[in-house]
Amino acid sequence: MPAxxxxxxxxxxxxxxxxxxxxxxxxxxxxxxxxxxxxxNRFALGIAFTLAIAALGTGLARLxxxxxxxxxxxxxxxxxxxxxxxxxxxxxxxxxxxxxKRLLRFAIVLYGLRLNIAVILHxxxxxxxxDAATIAFSIGLMVLLARWWRADASLSLLLGVGTGVCxxxxxxxxxxxxxxxxxxxxxxxxxIALGGTVFAIAYTLLRPLLPLPALQYGVWSGVSIxxxxxxxxAAAPAGGQALAVALLAKLGRVFLLIPLAFGMMLWMKRRGxxxxxxxxxxxxxxxxxxxxxxxxxxLVPVLRVPSDWMQAVSNFSSFLLxxxxxxxxxxxxxxDVRTKAVRPFVAMVATSVLLSGWTLLSLWW
Length: 365
Known about the structure:
By secondary structure, the protein is an all-alpha fold.
């Protein structure tokens, strides 16, 4: 039986000072409590814990049906279910927080390698105008609907960014800039992953019914669907050319994440004049994102880096992002979700429907 001052967290082990001071005993459980009481051990085991759930989510996403959702959403779902059944693993908090914050930013930096700025500047400037309109429409409408329906402002803003830019990656990039709670970041990422997948499948079902040439269908998919993988899912059935132009349009939205993030940083600083001082940490990880984008666009081709190496880095960055989202998902309490996420979710669905309709009509004008 644990002592009265011990908290029964994570398989009954506490990370309090009392455990750190407890002498080793012949009891294996007592020795484990001492081991977990050391911050370095809790740090390493916490990171391993998020990586393990990320691996489970990645494996689950390879099964039929779950492959439509993707590893990120699967891993978040596992983390949320774990939190509801077993509670937050307090003994592992240092490592989990490292994954949720530091691994997240490192994954975003590596994600920059996927953005080919040269291609956008050469072939996609016309699409960038549509992309900018998509971002402005999504964020503006989400903020407006949040005010009308009295939805949670922070969560609605994150969902607007995710809808307009590039799903969970954009949410993760701007959340530290706007000071969003980790729980809101995880909820928004999960909602975007689920909603975007549903819309991508709906696009594939609507495609045969629409009088759209393949290239126009690709543009429509690229400027209106949330995640890169979801854009590929929607556009691939229309053929290789449709897929190529869809991904080009989507890359333009990812490119616009850079000025959007810096604009939000300036906006947060200006808010300090009215709402009191607002401390905004400079998003150095976005500088790294831009640097990696430039390296991937201009340096990698010169060095002739093998494509399988680049694919390995891409897979690694996706896995790190998944592990980071596990750390965020462990902060989600379904009791809070029921009270604060319903209205933002409805607003996101309404925004996505209107965005799809508006971008479709714009192709016929």
